[in-house]
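Dear colleague,

Thank you for sharing your sequence with our group. We've completed the structure prediction you requested, and as agreed, I am returning the results in plain text so they can be pasted directly into your records. Please verify that the sequence below matches your submission; if there's any discrepancy, let me know and we will rerun it promptly.
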Amino acid sequence: MSFEPTPLLDMSSPEAKRASYDTLIAQTQALLQGERDRLANLAQFAALIYHSVPQLNWSGFYLVNPKNGQELVLGPFQGKVACVRIAFSRGVCGACARTREVQLVEDVHAFPGHIACDAASRSELVLPIVVDGQLRAVFDLDSPEPARFDAEDARGFQAALQILIDGTDWS
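Please find the predicted structure tokens below.
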């Protein structure tokens, strides 16, 4: 495989972000082309995001535990060691899993029940991964910068995640 991601995407303005997310979508398509394995694709995507998007200290997945359907279990990620299990009733990831809605948190310390896996994290963006109407995982992004994420980031990551969802075998 010959794939070389851009060093760091430019997130300095709304216009730069839109162009960067177009690049990220193209990179996701190229990176996952011809591979449908869930674990491989999740690992590649987490690494691509972590090394391409500025001001992150964690990028990764929490997978729905199929044994009880009410708990997330750590999946492929990049960054410091992380919490292994998160109940749907706890934290930002749990809120995303419970509601199936994007969670954009400007200040994690102001979020009731926030789980501090890394004390350096200041803001967080968590997106649900729903396949055929079933929640399969959440994609979690942490930043040491307050208010690092906005609606443009949520849209951009949702578009890139859709490439991942469509190009992956989930069973």
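Summary note from our side: The mean pLDDT is 93.

Kind regards,
the structure core
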